[in-house]
């Protein structure tokens, strides 16, 4: 089983650098993921890739089955998950074509963001939502590729699918937000519940509309195309740097250790079966 996963965002629907490719279709207790998972080799390491919005970009941010996507990675053995996303900048120093590595999120959505409920309660620690090991790997990889990279800051996750009004964009700037996007917060939370390391490589495509120019899909796609080579080279380097043989010393690996509060005798076999890959170490 692969231990490294990559979620591709807008503009990244397949991994051209993969060899020994195999598409894997699976079902989860939470429904179908966005697409099949692409298993392949990136360099010498096996990696699993999922196009977040499906091949052909058929799924809106608010329509994504985040739980199925992350559960599928867990079921396939992924321990470290890198997400790539297109974002807007809320600060002048964060320029289009830069890479931003957020370490905080601010959620403006109300999407399904937990595997728990329906007979089992769990409360994970989420003060630091990004894996410290994985964000450092991405930072090292981006610097090696001579990218303009910014490590640390806050990603505000809006509902979409429309881009922000100027009033909203201005307010997020007053709040001190750094970048704006539509997808990554829920992924980070579910990955933590699944005890997976998670980090986001946010590709800045535009200044949000606070800067004067309206945000359009044309602008985003144009800059994504310009940055495709850099993002792919950075991903390849990051995968090279990840030590898949270590035991993971970060807090991600045991996020559920003290999080499940339901009396074990009250948890039904159906719940245990539904959440099997997530809770098998705690509900034996």
TrEMBL record:
Pathway, per record: Amino-acid biosynthesis; L-methionine biosynthesis via salvage pathway; S-methyl-5-thio-alpha-D-ribose 1-phosphate from S-methyl-5'-thioadenosine (phosphorylase route): step 1/1
SUPFAM superfamilies: Purine and uridine phosphorylases (SSF53167)
Domain of life according to the entry: Bacteria
E.C. number: 2.4.2.28
Reactions accelerated catalytically: S-methyl-5'-thioadenosine + phosphate = 5-(methylsulfanyl)-alpha-D-ribose 1-phosphate + adenine
Cellular component, GO, one term: cytosol
InterPro entries from the UniProt entry: MTAP, Nucleoside_phosphorylase_d, Nucleoside_phosphorylase_sf
Keyword flag Transferase: yes
Keyword terms, alphabetized: Glycosyltransferase, Purine salvage, Transferase
Site (Important for substrate specificity): 164, 217
GO molecular function: S-methyl-5-thioadenosine phosphorylase activity
Ranges of residues in domain Nucleoside phosphorylase: 3-239
Function according to Swiss-Prot or TrEMBL: Catalyzes the reversible phosphorylation of S-methyl-5'-thioadenosine (MTA) to adenine and 5-methylthioribose-1-phosphate. Involved in the breakdown of MTA, a major by-product of polyamine biosynthesis. Responsible for the first step in the methionine salvage pathway after MTA has been generated from S-adenosylmethionine. Has broad substrate specificity with 6-aminopurine nucleosides as preferred substrates.
Subunit structure comment from the entry: Homohexamer. Dimer of a homotrimer.
Stated family: Belongs to the PNP/MTAP phosphorylase family. MTAP subfamily.
Protein name: S-methyl-5'-thioadenosine phosphorylase
Taxonomic source organism: candidate division NPL-UPA2 bacterium Unc8
Name of the encoding gene: mtnP
